[in-house]
Design goal:
mainly beta; seven-stranded mixed beta sheet; 7 helices; 52 strands; 53% strand
């Protein structure tokens, strides 16, 4: 009795405090008890009263507020509290919408009824509306199964608790994870996706190097064993579009092509399109490689550092708040401090048949050489979520390679020396803003810049000659993309892109005096329209779009349709039809094979719509994809034609080396992959056939095999992964690339002048290489993870020829055969710490 009397007195005495606005009172309660009030402003406007005592429990405070006002309070699990007028409670329908997966509220869920306009749920999953004359309530959200509720069944005065189940997409079941290795998958749009953080192991690789990994995909090769010369279905490296977080990269390799320029411990996903790419990808006539380091989900703070026999790197991600984070990564060569066996093999490969080795071959008395080489790359990402619908990200990247070679020799008491400096660098930045206007509409805007520079400086003291060469690219642009979801099956995208590219080529010699500087600028505009239809019941995926390009300088329109059609005959078998038309305004050419010391001899140029046309391509492929019972079969048949190519872009070292003409190449091919997984063991075999031919109409031999044709390529790998131990053994075999032999019957060897047979009339010897790699990782009691990796490329030490040409020797006045070979046996060891 005493307790009841005390309780009543305490309630009646609570209003003796200072009068304050009702809104301020409930805000204080929210902060103290960690709850959230739902209400409309009109029912609490201008309402003031004395607040309840702070030491009272939540339910007593609500009873006090109900007694002092004309409001009712509905407490839901001490998390959400609904406020409404006492006389209007039965006229309202309210509810909370949750996901069955993680039990979290669903924001922007669509709530429809027969007599109300469309409303959406808030960040707490809450909605309410007047009941009126309603029969059915429909709750829906993209990615979830819609739910219908009969209004007559809503008899409780409490708010509804609605649980939505995720929509199961039947076509997704055939998406193949673990193609070639864990962390590699094939998407339903025909593209391949690599996730470095989930990457397993491949023969010869102990790190998830993006450009080395993609060479394991059928149809992707490197004709000279370089990541700076990746050939996709017979195309040249510059015909591929390489994007890093929306920035076009003009330098893709370190060590002049032997190592990827993209930190393998940074990327979250890498998408590779051989055909049927989105209309939002422009400026390429071959493949698209899009690297994104933006995670799809929130990640915790992390740090890692590693070292191998070429470089050391560090990576760190730190969450500044619940809505922002910063990510930093850096990598630098260790060649400044130590010469490892790996480094020596790389040097031998890079300097073959360059002006560097030419000097040493001509001077064989008291020859001295001092080489200094280093490289680094660094990236920074800052992401900030603004409110619940906006995301702002800033990405920065810098890549740089430096080579300095000093050579000297004394011949007949005459000193000769050369001081050579070669630098290659690429800087880039991208500022992106994404916003979700509502559950059906999303917009993304990107502002980006990419700057590339290749420079060489040669100082010859004997001839008192200084030669300077520079190739610079400055690329700026803006991308606007809108995404519209019409319904669960159909969506539509549209956008606009502006691109400005300026390329400068400089050559300067002091003895004799020569100076040439050429700068070209090209501006393009593009309108993009793209629609996607994805019916999970009929297992049809269809995506079609078009890109309308306008080149200001030429006043020229180029229309590029794209298409992806996938039909699931069953849950195990897909038929794929992919097609695209594309164009490209810039390309790399070789003026002289000894430019930039013959090491990185390609330079970027812009189309002039005359001697350097705009390159255009058309491609179509028909694919069969089967996956069942741990068996996987992928067969791709394709046709590809690229027009507007120049002889200087194809790297000829025969009679066409100094011929300047334009033409095209045409490829017909098949790519085959079969794979089987048995418990912890995975094995696969791939075969690629290409029939790739040039057509230069104005040349005396208009048709002949393409320089980048590998008629037959076979690969095999066996991979074992169990717990933390992984090992991979594999081999790659290919028919030799085409070469041109001299016509000895027409050469006067007493005064030789090179006379060739028909271009690419024969082939190099077969290329064959066996590689192995293994990794092991473990954790200590503090949760710190360690990873040790060992690999050997070309373990049989086979001498593989990758190019061959002929020249007149100034020393012997005779024709000599010049051969270039792939890497010989090359070991590598890595160690990494992650926390």
């Amino acid at each position: 009795m005493f307790f009841i009397l005390f309780h009543v007195l305490s309630l009646s005495a609570q209003d003796n405090g200072k009068i304050m606005p009702f809104k301020k009172i409930i805000i204080d309660i929210e902060q103290q008890h960690h709850v959230s009030f739902n209400y409309t402003e009109d029912i609490i406007a201008e309402l003031q009263l004395s607040p309840p005592k702070k030491n009272l429990p939540l339910d007593q405070k609500l009873r006090y507020l109900s007694k002092k006002t004309s409001l009712s309070f509905e407490n839901i699990e001490n998390k959400f509290i609904n406020i409404y007028k006492k006389d209007s409670k039965i006229q309202k329908i309210c509810g909370y919408i949750f996901s069955s997966i993680d039990k979290k509220p669903i924001e922007n869920a669509n709530v429809n009824s027969s007599s109300t306009t469309q409303i959406t749920s808030d960040s707490n999953g809450y909605f309410e509306f007047e009941k009126g004359d309603i029969n059915i309530i429909v709750i829906s959200h993209v990615g979830f199964i819609s739910k219908k509720i009969a209004a007559d069944d809503v008899t409780s005065e409490n708010c509804l608790h609605i649980i939505l189940e995720p929509e199961i997409t039947e076509l997704e079941e055939i998406k193949a994870h673990g193609i070639l290795a864990s962390g590699i998958s094939k998407n339903k749009d025909g593209s391949f996706e690599i996730r470095p953080k989930k990457f397993g192991i491949l023969p010869g690789l102990i790190e998830p190097d993006a450009l080395q990994t993609m060479q394991q995909i059928p149809g992707v090769n490197s004709i000279d064993e370089s990541v700076s010369s990746i050939n996709v279905r017979g195309g040249t490296h510059d015909q591929n579009l390489f994007l890093w977080n929306g920035i076009r990269m003009y330098q893709t390799g370190h060590f002049f092509g032997l190592i990827s320029a993209f930190n393998p411990n940074l990327a979250h996903s890498i998408s590779i399109y051989k055909d049927g790419s989105s209309a939002f990808f422009g400026e390429s006539v071959s493949s698209v490689v899009a690297i994104s380091s933006t995670p799809n989900t929130a990640e915790k703070n992390s740090f890692s550092a590693g070292i191998n026999m070429i470089n050391a790197d560090v990576y760190a991600k730190y969450n500044l708040s619940q809505k922002s984070y910063i990510e930093i990564a850096g990598r630098k060569s260790i060649t400044d401090y130590v010469e490892t066996p790996t480094y020596r093999e790389y040097l031998n490969k890079v300097f073959q048949n360059t002006t560097i080795t030419d000097f040493s071959q001509k001077q064989n008395v008291n020859y001295k050489s001092d080489k200094e080489f280093d490289f680094y790359d660094a990236t920074l990402k800052y992401a900030q979520k603004i409110g619940t619908k906006n995301l702002l990200t800033l990405d920065l990247i810098t890549i740089k390679d430096n080579l300095e070679v000093f050579q000297s020799a004394s011949v007949n008491n005459i000193n000769k020396s050369e001081d050579n400096i070669l630098r290659q660098q690429n800087y880039g930045g991208n500022l992106a803003w994404k916003t979700n206007w509502n559950m059906y509409n999303r917009t993304e805007i990107n502002l980006y810049n990419s700057s590339y520079k290749l420079s060489a400086n040669q100082n010859n003291t004997a001839d008192d000659q200084i030669v300077v060469q520079e190739n610079t690219v400055n690329n700026n642009g803006i991308n606007l993309e809108n995404n519209h979801t019409i319904n669960s099956r159909f969506s539509f995208n549209d956008g606009y892109q502006f691109n400005e590219i300026g390329i400068t080529n400089l050559e300067q010699v002091n003895n004799p005096d020569f100076y040439r500087k050429i700068k070209d600028v090209l501006r393009t505009h593009a309108l993009i329209f793209e629609g996607k239809y994805n019916d999970t019941l009929s297992r049809i995926y269809f995506k079609a779009g078009t890109r309308i390009n306008y080149i200001e300088k030429f006043k020229k329109y180029i229309i590029e349709p794209r298409m992806q059609f996938i039909y699931g005959i069953s849950r195990s078998l897909n038929l794929e039809l992919l097609g695209e038309l594309k164009s490209q305004n810039s390309q790399q050419i070789i003026d002289l094979q000894k430019d930039y010391f013959g090491i990185e001899k390609r330079r970027w140029v812009i189309a002039d719509n005359a001697t350097i046309p705009v390159q255009r391509s058309k491609q179509i492929s028909f694919n069969i994809f089967y996956k069942k019972n741990d068996w996987l079969l992928d067969i791709e048949n394709f046709y590809k034609k690229v027009t507007g190519i120049t002889t200087s872009s194809q790297g000829f070292q025969n009679q066409l080396e100094f011929v300047r003409t334009t033409g095209d190449y045409e490829v017909l091919g098949t790519e085959f992959l079969i794979q089987k997984k048995i418990n912890h063991f995975l094995t696969w075999f791939s075969y690629t056939y290409n029939d790739n031919n040039y057509d230069f109409p104005s040349y005396e031999y208009p048709s002949f095999p393409n320089n980048f044709e590998l008629t037959h390529t076979l690969s095999w790998a066996g991979i074992y992964e169990r717990n933390n131990f992984k090992i991979a053994l594999g081999t790659k075999w290919s028919s030799g690339r085409p070469k041109t032999s001299p016509d000895n019957s027409q050469i006067d060897f007493s005064n030789p002048v090179l006379v060739y047979n028909k271009p690419n009339n024969t082939n190099l010897h077969i290329f064959s290489q066996v590689n192995i790699s293994s990794t092991y990782k473990w954790k200590n009691k503090n949760g710190i993870q360690y990873k040790l990796g060992v690999s050997v490329l070309n373990i049989l030490n086979r001498k593989n020829e990758i190019s061959e040409y002929y020249r007149i020797s100034n020393l012997t006045n005779s024709i000599e055969e010049v051969e270039t070979f792939a890497l010989q046996r090359t070991p590598n060891v890595s160690f990494r710490i992650s926390m």
